[in-house]
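Team,

Forwarding the record for the chain on the shared tracking sheet. I've put the sequence and predicted structure together so nobody has to dig through attachments.
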Amino acid sequence: MLFLLFCSFFVSLVSAVFFIRMARGHARRYDEAKPQRFHAGDVPRVGGVGVLAGVAAGWLVAALAGAFGIRLNIEVDWAFAWPWAVVVLPAVMGGVYEDVTQRLSVRYRLGLTAMSAGAGVWLAGAVYRSARPARRG
């Protein structure tokens, strides 16, 4: 488990530093009147891509370890990893698109995030079912 944690952290750190360094010039074009612009100076807002890369790396390493018979404290296989990767894509892609272009409204980002959350609830099987028996009329 610690191996997965360190692997995810390392990939997240390296990719976040890379994306933030690459987007530094882009951050100068952010509109000063936007509510997201609360940092002092030009701070790029694409660090979430690094976090996603770290999570994906952890899933990939865990799935590869399972495929090669390496026992970890957590068992992840491809059948588990790929649906979760698909579930997070709408929220992540909406956030990245808004970070880069600043042209996606809050309403659309909230809708994409809600869509990812709903798909995650469905995938986890966490749908609420009443404990009360149904009424017969």
